[in-house]
Structure formats: C-alpha cells, structure tokens
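Board notes (copied after class):
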Amino acid sequence: MPSKVARRSVLASIPAIGAASVVRKARASNPATVRFAFFGDEVETLAYELLIERFHQEFPSITVEAVPVASRNIPPVGNTLPSGGYPEWLRQSFTSGSPPDVFMLGYRDIGRYVTRGLVEPLNPYLSGSSIFSEDDFYPAALDAFRSPFLNDNELGALPQNASSLVVYYNTEIFDAMGIDRPEFGWSWDEFASAASALTLDLDDDGRIDVHGLAFEPSITRYAPFIWGAGGEIYDDLHAPTKLLIDTAEARAGIQWLSWLGAAGLNVTPTAAEARELDDTRRFRSGHAAMLIQSRRVTTFLRQNSAISWDVAPLPAGKTPVNLLHSDGLAMYVGTKDKEAAWAFIEFAMGPVGQTLLAESGRTVPSLRSIAESDAFMKGTSISDALGFGFRPKSAQVFLDNVEVSRRLPSEIGWSSVVRGLDEELKNAFYGGSPVEETVQKMLSRTSFVFESSSTMQRRLFQLTVGGPESED
C-alpha cells in the first residue's frame, strides 16, 4: 500500500466531470492571491492540495496559497480533535495581522467569528451564483452557518459537509460471533447486548483483549442519546440561557450511555486504557468491535485499518436522532480581493470541489447531488489512486442521518459550557458518578457562563443589528 502518491498523478486520474460546464472563469482581470487555511491529516491535506490544483487549472489568474495546519484524524494520547491546534491558530491569526482570506471552521465556532465582525456575509454571493443555489444544499447543513448577528440571519460560511455520528463496526468479529450486522432501527438493548457479547478475554488471563465499544464520553456523543430518550439539552439553539438536562428523560439518556462504561456494563476501555491507546487506533487494530465517530475518521481507517469494517446507524431510543457535524468555508471580511476569494469558495463548494473531497473520504457532501453520486457512495478515483479499497459499503447511513440530525448551539459562550459538561460526563462514564449528581454539577458549573453570555449576547445583538435588548 503506497504511503505517498504524486499529486499530479492522482489529479490526472480524476475525471473532469464536466468541469468546464459547471465553473466560470474568474472575473478579476488582474492576478490575485487567496490564502486558504484548513486543518487536516496527510490524506486530507492531499485532497485539499488536489482541489487547489484543479482550481488553478480553471482560474489561472488566481493563486490559492494553502495554509494547512496539521491535525490528525485521531488524536495523540489525552487530547481531542482537532489535535494540531487549528482553533487556536485561527483565533490568533486575526490578531497577528495575517489572517487567511478563506478559512475552514466548524459550525459550532461560527458565532465566535460573526460576533467579532470577522466574516463576510455570503448570501449575496450565493444568490448570484450560477453554479449552485440554496436549494442544492442539504438545509440542515446550510442552516447551521446562519447567524442572527448577520442581517436577516445570513450565512457566515458555506458548508462543505453534512456529517453525523455512526457506529463503525468490525464486520469480521460480528460474523465470527454470530451476531447480526446492525441495521437502521436497532434498539439500545440490542446495541448493549452486542457490545457485551463482543467484549472478549481471548487468552483467559483476566484482561479484556477486545472491548465491545469505544468512544469519547463528551456532550457531542451524549447529545443523540439525551435527545433519543426524549430529553433536551438547551432552551434556545440560537441564544441558550440555561440547560434543560434536569428532567427524567434527559437523565435517562445520560444514565444509559454512562452505564456502558467501566462502572456499569464494562464494555468500553477505562480512562487509563483510553490514554494508552486512543479509540480509533483501538478499533482499527481489532481491539474494539465498535466505534462511535463521525465521517472524518474514514480517511484514516481506509488507509490504516487491519480489519474489515462498515458503518451502521446509532441505536435508536424513543426516536431516531443524530448530531450534525459540519465544517464550512468562510471569507474574511477584510480580504483584499473578495471576488477572488468567492471564486475559490464557489469552486470548492461546487460540484468539482465537493467531488474531490468526497472521493477522498473526508466529507459527507453538503451538495445533495454529490452526496447521492458515486463520488461519495462508491469513493472512486482518489481511493483507487491512493491504494486503499472502498469503505464503508453502507455509506447511505450518513445520508439517512441528515434528516434526523440536530445541532448544538454556536453562540459565543457555548464552548465554555461544553468544557464543564464534558468534564462531568467523563466523571460519570469512567468513575460511575450518580446521574443526579452529574446533572447537578453540570447545572452549577454552567449557570454563571450562561448568565454572562446572555448579557453579552444581548449587547452584541443591539450593537450589530440594532435589535432591542431583552425585557427580561
């Protein structure tokens, strides 16, 4: 299996898919340079470099300068994604005097940049596009980048993907143990039963060699199970003022997922074991039968996995539900050549660009037509050129998830809330803290953050769009 592939040889293997008919030449008469910042591992970075090379073929008067920030698909021990410091780098770039013209960011970070007045509203550009329209995108992905701090709830970025959480599972061990491969609608009980049956001590030494399940206990993993139990997490998606987790339904979701940990069913690695070997490496080496993750680890698993694997939906509680994972491309409001910057965004988020990224395995395309094409469903050209076979076979699972995916807030104080939630959820999962105690600690740790954030949110809203202050 080749570890390095010449970019141009890969580029030559990618069909043009009618590029000339779906892109237009840059209108800028003078040469322009666009600095594009993104995070990624080696394979992801290659995909973006291929994207840039194809763009240069179509827009020779515009030079895109890649600014990749290394970020592995799987984190080093003890850290979470992205592992290369991209969020910190991006924040600092706007105070260092050399911000990128176009930059990637997750939808949960859009509030931070919009409220600081750093992003160019993209609705006028989208409305004037001859390449795509709003109707071509999955609404859930597009809406995630709208902001009440932009006039008429405009877009602060265009989504490149509409990912979600799935269960990656080892098909060989499922078959060997005589366990039915999971399908849409499998229940929490069926999921727990499979995880228990697949937790194995292979050499009878009293130590678990294969864990039935691996995942990071955080609010981004707990959210679908809280919602799936009929509970809620926040009171308002756009301007949350409090948590709503102190209900029987929300507690049921928290308690069930925590019960899978070492203090309960004991089908997952302990905290110490997770520090020794991260979840994705544990799964790809055959030491975890199932893994809960988003689309992003697909590139790593295709290239490095020693097992046969596929994906399945999350098990369903009272109702099937998932969590949206979506990155987008934003334009810096102070960029010198906005026409050139938009030309690159339009190309990257258009059919040619999204096809390239989909074939790499990196994304669940936000353009419906590309998501339903062979580029995503069968992972064609780039996968073959890089030397790894197509997986997952059940890519349709990601598309089925789009309609049932919800999202977490993106307002400026939510990241502080998340830190408190994650720490307490880890205590519950690894240490067996009672759910009532966990909920009360999460409430107490976040009440001040919400109070401070609410005041700031009202003031920012009044300053940016002239909205009235709340009468509460």
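Comment from the instructor: The domain at 166-213+260-323 is CATH 3.40.190.10 (D-Maltodextrin-Binding Protein; domain 2). The longest strand covers residues 32-40.
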